[in-house]
Design a protein that fits this description.
By secondary structure, this protein is mainly α. It folds into two domains: about 60 residues, no CATH class; about 70 residues, Arc Repressor Mutant, subunit A. It is built from seven helices and no strands.
Length: about 130
């Protein structure tokens, strides 16, 4: 068996592992749990931490970027559909927890990185999001 055969098998295996991780993340909305870690996710999907990490890093920079991307997609989808609750009356950190972030500050930091805007600016734009 040559080196190319191993590389092809690993690429296939990596795709299968990522597919299994991604399906579980999206179907069960595991990304909404702000205590989610790579070891927890890999245990839930029946793979080990190293393989899970390598599969994710084949498409994203790291596990945190992957999870935050899913969280932002979920939040933007809710804003577009008008499903976001009004966070002005409640605790801002509680609102952030609903989208998988520990604090409102961490939510805004990730949003600025991903979209260039804070949540308030995104909420003001509402239906104009792409």
């Amino acid at each position: 068996m040559g080196k190319n055969d191993y590389g092809k098998r690993w690429e296939y295996t990596k795709d299968v592992i990522f597919g299994r991780l991604d399906k579980r993340m999206r179907e069960d909305k595991l990304y909404l749990d702000y205590t989610l870690t790579l070891p927890k996710l890999s245990g839930m999907t029946g793979t080990n931490r190293t393989y899970a990490s390598r599969a994710i890093c084949g498409r994203f920079r790291n596990f945190r970027d992957y999870v935050n991307t899913l969280r932002v997609e979920n939040l933007l989808s809710d804003v577009q559909c008008g499903r976001c609750c009004d966070d002005i009356a409640g605790d801002p950190d509680e609102f952030a927890n609903k989208y998988g972030f520990r604090t409102r500050r961490s939510l805004d930091r990730v949003l600025v990185k991903e979209t260039g805007c804070t949540y308030r600016k995104i909420k003001q734009r509402g239906q104009d999001l792409e």
